[in-house]
Amino acid sequence: xxxxxxxxxxxxxxxxxxxxxxxxxxxxxxxxxxxxxxxxxxxxxxxxxxxxxxxxxxxxxxxxxxxxxxxxxxxxxxxxxxxxxxxxxxxxxxxxxxxxxxxxxxxxxxxxxxxxxxxxxxxxxxxxxxxxxxxxxxxxxxxxxxxxxxxxxxxxxxxxxxxxxxxxxxxxxxxxxxxxxxxxxxxxxxxxxxxxxxxxxxxxxxxxxxxxxxxxxxxxxxxxxxxxxxxxxxxxxxxxxxxxx
Length: 245
Hints:
By secondary structure, the protein is α+β, with helices and mostly antiparallel strands. It is built from nine helices and five strands.
C-alpha cells in the first residue's frame, strides 16, 4: 500500500474506473483526502490487513474520521452518495427541498452503478482477462454494454448532460467508463456521436482530463490490458448488435 496524507478521509483505491469516479467526486468538490493505492494486480485487496477494512476484498473503500467516529463505506455507489449527502454541493439537488430534482440525478447514479459498471466489468473479464475468450460470450456482453451505451447516446441527443442542461454527479461518475471505451475496448463505441460530443466537452474540465490521463497511464503499465490494446489496434472490428432485454 502507498498513500499521501490527510487524517480525516482515507480512500483505498486503484487506478480503475470505479475508484476513479470516487476520486473525481472528491476532487471536484475540493474535499481533501488521503489516497491509499491498493495494488490489485498483486492481490493486495485480499490480504488479511486489507480485509479488516473491507471484508469483501474490493476497492474502493472510504474511511471517514472527520466527526471523531470512524465510518467505513464500501461499494462505490454508497461512497458517492455518502459524499454527496455529507458535503454541500451543486452536483445533486437537496433531497429535502427538491425531491424530484434529487431523484432525477440519483436514478442516473444508480444506472451507472447497476448497468454501466457491471457491463464494463463483464466485457473486461470475458474479452481481455480470460486467457481464451469464447466469442459467443464476448459478443453477448459487448451487446449488453452497447445497448446501455446506446441508451445514453439517445439521452444525450436532447440533453447537454445526462440529467438535463446542468452538470451533475451523474456526469462525473459515468465519465471514467467513457475514458476506458476510448481505448477501443468496444470499437463500435465510436459510432455513438452524441456520447463523443459529451465526453469531449467533459474533458474541458481540468480534473476530468487529468483523470483520463491517469487512467491511460495506468493502462499503459498494465501488461494484460496494454497487450490487448496493442494487439487489436489494426484488427477488424466485429459489430455486435445491442442485446435485447
